[in-house]
Amino acid sequence: QVQLVESGGGLVHPGGSLRLSCAASGNIFRWHVMDWYRQAPGKERELVATFTSGGTSIYADSVKDRFTISRDNAKTTVWLQMNSLKPADTAVYYCHGLAEFMNYWGKGTLVTVSS
Question: Fewer C-beta neighbours within 10 Å, C or N terminus of the chain?
């Protein structure tokens, strides 16, 4: 059974930092991509950060220069370093993976930015 498991969410003050992790497990030969989405209350799920096929990281405009996506060489673990967090970043953050033409999702981890 393929699983994506996120960790690292929590409550943080504005201006603080968090690092999210996502570990993939299961019988997948090769992940095409693993990336991060988020869904704020009352809003649609949106892409936060991903990689191009060439390995370049790209970001939503709202998180550019504050968030950094990274991955291990085996591409089975992906991280999201989030700095200078704002209340608008409050959301459930989901790890997403695409492999063998199938989309997989983690259960999400809640990030709350509040004073």
Answer: N
Render pLDDT for 89-113 as a digit per residue (tens, 0 to 9).
999 999 999 988 899 999 999 999 9
Q: In a 3-state reduction of DSSP, which class is residue 17?
A: coil
CA quadruple 3, 61, 58, 70: dihedral positive or negative? Answer: negative
pLDDT at 81: 98
In angstroms, the CA 95 to CA 3 distance is: 10
Query: Does residue 38 contact residue 92 with C-beta atoms inside 8 Å?
Result: yes
Q: 99-103 long-range CB contacts below 8 Å, 24 or more apart? A: 99/2, 99/28, 99/29, 99/30, 99/31, 99/32, 100/28, 100/29
Three-class SS state of 82: strand
